[in-house]
Fold this sequence. Notes:
D-Maltodextrin-Binding Protein, domain 2; transmembrane helix; 66% helix; alpha/beta; single chain; 4-stranded mixed beta sheet; membrane; 2 domains; Transport permease protein
Amino acid sequence: MSIFQSLIKKEVLHLLRDFRTVTVVLVMPVILLLLFGFAISTEVNDVRVVAVVEQHTDETKQIIDRFRTNSYFTFAGIVTYNEVESLLRKGRADAAVVFRTEDGKLKHQIVVDASNTNMAQTSTAYLESVIRSGASIPVVTDTLYNPQLRSAYNFVPGIMGMIFIMICAMMTSVSIVSEKETGTMNLLLVSPVRPRTIILGKLVPYFLLSCIILILMLLLSYTVLGIPFSFSVIHVIWVTILYVVLALALGLLISTIASTQVSALLVSGVMFMIPVVLLSGMIFPVENMPLALQWFSCIIPARWYISAMRVLMIQQLPIGYVLTEVLVLSGMALAVLVLAVKKFNAKK
């Protein structure tokens, strides 16, 4: 058995002996994916609606009937205009629709509780669509890529971007730093083994573990969460592998900076976890951020990976549509890997 194979075997045995950590690493992606796919949803249901009708007509009756039969709404009755504010303040209604007839034409006003901005914006859009669906000139809406407007479609690429940063960068950096703390890394560095062999021996097991997690997450995404399957999954896999290599390089770079496992975790959390959640586009659109934060988000690898995954997994477009993202990730991976190896050699 070669020295390189021995190093890989050593690291694999180290992982397998730490059964609790491996279990958490494998179970955590499943829990996060299911949690964001089902429990955490940006969809709005059971919107309590009241109506104010100054003069009943066939048109107002039809609109109110649509409110009663629509599964997104709970119609709470017809009230007077003076009661609307009281109902909204007491939480007995989420929105009110006021119908007025002016010059023989029906006009409407929507009053909504905006203490929850997401619910207010979404419920207003729902109400508008129901009211206008009966107009003399029908409005035809064609929703591409996500016809059911399921929030899981939005969260899956983001969860994948976050998970691989956590597994690859954090665990790799902590593993290498723990070797420093116990003194075994110093023994390896003074041995005849080349530093690049030591680096690859430490990274390969985590790369294989990341591949297992990738397969698990893709299976859940295409089966349980119902994301449409297509042959673009091949591109999803190799772009993810590129992202994993970048994350491993980041973990290696952190290990050259941090001296203890606690500091490695803190550096990983501050440098990667917070930016990934807030600035990568996982939850909040990058386009809605201030210009300075938009520029800053360009150095966050997860931004480019999540953008590519949405194109490949959700829109199912060819790889040519994410060439910019692939080139940026490739450049980042090469730059970080070269810097990490140089710093690692300097520590020898």
